[in-house]
Design goal:
With 318 residues, the protein is α/β, with parallel strands linked by helices. The protein has eight helices and 14 strands. Helix 6 links the parallel strand 8 (174-188) and strand 9.
Length: 318
């Protein structure tokens, strides 16, 4: 079955930050968990090899249990980077949990007039959703804590995205064939679900929705998709890209449960059920999420998605 969305570009309202150039400064901030200097060292070395200067926020290694300092110190670090004229891009050091505790206190005044790239994933979905809701482009990517384990392709894609050289991605994983154009929005399913009813609830109408997650029960995944559907988040999307859904669990003996009582559907089965009737192209197995091969891509930037049988192609027009 083929599903087609009319290939009509609407006026591009997206506000895209300037791409980086050699000599620019990239900032590293911890909005959730702390990170040690030793853990940051590989990322700093790699950024410097790309010709970038690196500015590390003062509280990235401060430990308040699992968080990088209290909310006030993490907010101060992020705010300083947002307001720093020299910093042309910000990459969050790692995820975990904690960014949502800051989101409503951020002053975006300077950023809104002087946008810069913000990169990360997982817990950073909170920031990515706010940016896409307000019409700004951002980068979904691996983060410094994961650089030592990241594939070469993941790191190369991050560099290409930051420097404006990322134009196309191809992979195998088509579920419903078709083609669509629009901005990509979304991120971590659990984080998107947790923002329902808030000021940063995701706006996905007319957009290509990207989802990924890790370490969830299969029935939890169905519940979250049902929550998005009932809240209207899925209404009017023009396509779906599913990234990694890793370390997923079920109610079975293999996962430590006392009875074999499986949910009965895997993640791709759920995608078929929820998104097949929408008549939009659906691509699975996209190399992004909680994976070593977590390849960077643009969010909130015009993109073209084509799914043909198993072959998937994502293009970011210049």
């Amino acid at each position: 079955m083929k599903h087609y969305i009319p290939l009509l570009w609407v006026k591009d309202s997206c506000m895209q930050p300037p791409f980086l150039q050699s000599g620019d400064t990239i900032g590293i901030v911890s909005t959730a968990r702390w990170v040690s200097p030793e853990q940051l060292a590989p990322a700093i070395a790699l950024f410097e090899s790309w010709g970038l200067r690196v500015k590390v926020a003062p509280n990235v290694g401060t430990k308040t249990f699992q968080l990088a300092g209290n909310d006030a110190s993490r907010l101060a670090d992020l705010q300083a980077m947002l307001d720093d004229k020299e910093v042309k891009a910000i990459i969050i050091s790692r995820g975990g949990y904690g960014t949502v505790r800051l989101i409503d206190q951020i002053d975006w005044t300077f950023f809104d007039q002087n946008p810069k790239w913000i990169a990360g994933y997982s817990d950073i979905t909170v920031l990515l959703n706010r940016l896409s809701n307000q019409g700004f482009s951002a980068i979904h990517s691996t983060m410094p804590i994961s650089f030592p384990d990241a594939t070469k392709e993941a790191l190369d894609n991050l560099k290409a995205a930051l420097f404006g050289e990322l134009n196309e991605m191809t992979w195998e994983g088509g579920l419903f064939a078709g083609q669509a154009e629009g901005e990509i929005v979304g991120g971590n399913l659990s984080v998107i679900y947790s923002q329902l009813g808030s000021a940063t609830q995701l706006k996905a109408k007319g957009k290509i929705l990207f989802l990924e997650d890790v370490d969830e029960m299969l029935y939890h995944t169905d519940r979250m998709l049902m929550g998005l559907k009932r809240a209207g988040v899925l209404d009017g999307i023009v396509g779906l890209i599913a990234g990694g859904f890793t370390q997923m669990k079920d109610n079975t003996l293999a996962f430590g449960f006392s009875l074999e009582n499986p949910w009965g559907a895997d993640v791709e089965d759920m995608f078929r059920e929820f998104f097949g009737p929408m008549g939009v192209p659906v691509a699975s197995q996209f190399p992004a999420g909680h994976l070593a091969d977590n390849r960077a891509f643009y969010m909130g930037k015009k993109a073209s998605l084509k799914v043909d049988n198993k072959n998937c192609r994502l293009v970011f027009p210049v």
